[in-house]
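Input sequence (185 aa), recorded before submission:
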Amino acid sequence: MKKQIAAIFIASLFTLSVAAQTYITRSGRITFFSKAPVENIEANNNEVTSILNTTNGEVAFIALIKSFKFQKALMEEHFNENYMESNTFPKANFKGTVTDLSKVNFSSDGTYNITVKGDLIIHGVTKNVEAPGTITVSQGKISANSKFNIKVKDYNIKIPTTVVNNIAETISVTVDCKYEPYKKG
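Predicted structure, token format:
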């Protein structure tokens, strides 16, 4: 099922030309962190699919909501059933562009500061976001990461008043991907 979703995702987002340099990962990582007065909450998803086109700067991510793992099973259950409603909204996506791709020399080792801009869809709500990030080239390998904040209310995620002190209004999101060249077929 996960492979089918990833294949559909890739096919629907990009028309690959022969000259395009497209890179992919199916094991990207997204972490979110909520710092609140009662407790801190952290979750990790190590099954994120992402693609990066080094020719035109297109970048996309898809994360299955149920793939986020928590330290406590009860947190994971509440996250999926009560807040993210993962049966109704099973994935989060991002599709955008590295706006300053000319800063990156994919032929030379280095860490390049970039900005990514595009549409982030969480809980069925689409928001235009802009986030700082880095692309690192090392011995021909490409990795990318970004850290940014999102507001829970912007994505219509309802937090019951009984637990409002347990969950932060603003969540810190970290994205980390190590890419491999995309091979059709």
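Checked by second reader. The chain is about 10% helix and 50% strand.
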